[in-house]
Amino acid sequence: MISVAIVGHGNIGTHLYNVFSTANHVKVIHISPRDLSALKEIDITFIAVPDNVIGKISSQIKNSFVVHTSGSVNVSDLKNSGRKGVFYPLQTFTKGKAVDFSDVPICVEAENHQDLILLEKLAKIISNRIYHIHSEQRKYIHIAAVFVNNFVNHLYTIAHDICKEHEIPYDMLRPLIKETADKINKLSPAEAQTGPAKRNDIFTIQNHLNLLNRHQQEIYTKLTASIQNYGKKL
Fold first, then answer.
1. % of the chain surpassing 90 pLDDT
2. DSSP 38-94
3. Distance in Å from the first CA to the final CA of the chain
4. 60-80: pLDDT as tens digits
5. Arithmetic mean of pLDDT, 154-158
6. d(Cα 144, Cα 102) in Å, to the nearest integer?
């Protein structure tokens, strides 16, 4: 049995608590950063709080092994006096939306081999995809994740606004969204790229720009240039 405490009630903390609560061989408690005095010694203490307070919160924890769940914070940024590690689930989390952890990549890191094995053992209880990733690699994984998730979702939002403004059902775009995502299971993203920027269709590009507001034009223009220049020596 691995005993776990999760500090923080945000998206990641809540989802980790939920999945550990139903997992075999894990005993988990969930506490607020304001209640650290009630924290008892257990095997692994998770800090699932905003990046800018990880150092402060960790410095107040006396437990022997403390890990954070951030994609962009070094393991050395933990300020507890004991052992340090990272347990980073590479997924987007929203409260109220369940996540199947069995397919979530989990990046683990620790300062010594025994702790790394412990984190790997815990990760394997909930996921089939475990990676030993050091802090420098994890920063770039997080950047890549922002591109494929956060930025793409913002583009969905812009498309949704365009559809709403012109009384077009956004649901019409869902099959296209699905096919675009499915395609990169068989092709590289560069091979899967299509559209007016890819074929340098200046006539269509200009027509699109004429229909967009200034903010949308700026984004459309930058993305078009990025597609057109991809692979070229700048």
1. 85
2. GPPP-SEEEE-S-GGGHHHHHHT--SSEEEE--SSS-GGG---SSEEEEEEE-S---
3. 55
4. 998 889 999 999 999 999 999
5. 98
6. 21
Contact 122, 4 (CB under 8 A): yes
Measured CA distances, 28 to 112, 122, 224 (Å): 23, 12, 48
Count of residues in the chain: 234
**Is residue 26 helix, strand or coil?**
strand
Burial class from Cβ neighbours inside 10 Å (0-12, 13-18, 19+) for residue 85 reads buried
Q: Which homologous superfamily is 2-133 in?
A: NAD(P)-binding Rossmann-like Domain (3.40.50.720)
CA distance 111 to 68: 13
Question: pTM here?
Answer: 0.88
Domain ranges of the chain: 2-133, 138-229
Could you give the CA distance from residue 100 to residue 207 in angstroms, rounded to a whole number?
42
Given the DSSP bridges, would you call strands 65-68 and 44-47 parallel, antiparallel or unpaired? parallel
